[in-house]
Amino acid sequence: MKLLQGVYAADAIRWMNAAADTARKAKCLRAKCGSVIVKDGEVIGTGYNAPPLDAECNRMCNATHTNGKPKYDATCCMHAEWRAILDTLKHNPEKIYGSALYFVRVDNTGAVSRSGKPYCTVCSRLALDAGIATFALWHEEGIGEYPTVEYNTLSYEYRHVA
What's the number of domains the chain is made of? Predict the structure, then answer.
């Protein structure tokens, strides 16, 4: 991971703000997340977290799950990263290889929340398989850009400490 500096940081802030605008559209009751995929200075895909097809009647965000499934499998929402990748594949499939994915979460007031360490292996695997070159998160110390291979490895190594 490298922290972006100078003009690279300024560009990344622009893309993170675009991801935040997208996150504000999220339909999830628990978290508002957004992603944009960028190639050659252009947003080529966007996504926010919500139930499939934005069907709010299928939201189970605040339900207590007792079906024995792991927490990550019990969610009703499509992740912002998944939707951004699908959006890119639908509208700009020729541009996805070598692109950059920017992910951000916003709080209930719409303000950007800083990210922790990479942890979502479902998103990292999909981004890796789709050909996305880098995955960016906005940490307290700045915007970190991860080669997607590294992001995937770190996601598998993540351990939540309560």
Answer: 1
For the stretch 23-52, pLDDT in tens is 999 998 888 999 999 999 999 999 999 999
Q: Which of 13, 88, 86, 79 shows the shortest CA–CA distance to 43?
A: 88
pLDDT at 57 over 70: yes
Q: Report the CATH number at residue 85.
A: 3.40.140.10
Phi, psi of 94 (to 5 degrees): -70, -10
162 within some domain: no
Dihedral, CA of residue 24, residue 122, residue 30 and residue 83, to nearest 10? 30
Q: Which of 108, 92, 52, 98 is nearest to 75 (CA)?
A: 52
Place of tokens 């339900």: 63
